[in-house]
Amino acid sequence: MKKIFGIVLTLSLLVAAPAYSQFNWGIKAGMNLTGKPKSLGDVKSDSKNGFFVGPMAKVVIPVLNIGLEGNLLYSQSESEFFGNSITRRSLEVPIYLRYDFALPILNKIVEPFIAVGPQFGWVIGNNDISGTEQVWDAASNTIKNSIYEWDYKKSYLSLNLGAGATLLNHIQLHINYNIALGNTGEWKSDPTGAAWDHVKESKINTWQVSAAYIF
């Protein structure tokens, strides 16, 4: 259902584009300022900054200043668990419903906008990591090694909330908060060596800062 919804919105954008005069496309690039994985308790985890890049297109209804923006982005971000890092490489399709503020005097110089919409993502290539962590074993009163595994979801859905401005009709600056609507990944640990007996699911939210050149 999620994928069908994304396909319908994307096709709507493509079909609507020729009907309006204000259709533009461009190239977008930016940084992923990824937050720490949530709900993992005492698991030593962290995130590092990543990047994204790809084409974009937007259609704006001139009178209402309401439009759609679609992006096709290659995105990369990195997470770290007990000193071991894993890079998530993914293909992401953010679709925004946006409102552009037409300022009477400055509209050709700066045009602010707000944007909201879903983002669909698919992981490319390897998406898990395994290693060992040290845990306290109360029964033997010793420290033992426990194996663990982190596995990114192969597909995911999130929500974007953002704002920005278009400068001189060609340069778009955008700050965006990406909220995971489902689990980003799953953490499993095995202190006994017999089976995965500690399983935790986690969400990762991301601040994004981007710039685009609109042709």
Short description:
It contains one helix and 13 strands, in the order αβββββββββββββ. By secondary structure, it is mostly beta strands. Strands 1, 2, 3, 4, 5, 6, 9, 10 and 13 form a nine-stranded antiparallel sheet that branches. The protein has a four-stranded antiparallel sheet with strand order 7-8-11-12, with no helix packed on it.
Primary descriptors:
215 residues; mainly beta; nine-stranded antiparallel beta sheet; four-stranded antiparallel beta sheet; 1 helix; 7% helix
Any overview of this molecule?
The chain is mostly beta strands and 215 residues long. Helix content is 7%, strand content 65%. It is built from one helix and 13 strands, in the order H-E-E-E-E-E-E-E-E-E-E-E-E-E. The strands form two sheets. Strands 1, 2, 3, 4, 5, 6, 9, 10 and 13 form a nine-stranded antiparallel sheet that branches. Strands 7-8-11-12 form a four-stranded antiparallel sheet, with no helix packed on it. A hairpin with a 2-residue loop joins strand 4 and strand 5 (84-100). It is elongated. The two termini are 34 Å apart. The relative contact order is 0.20.
Helix content: under 10%
Distance between the termini: 34 Å
C-alpha-based Rg, rounded: 21 Å
Q: How many individual β-strands? A: 13
Structural class: mainly beta
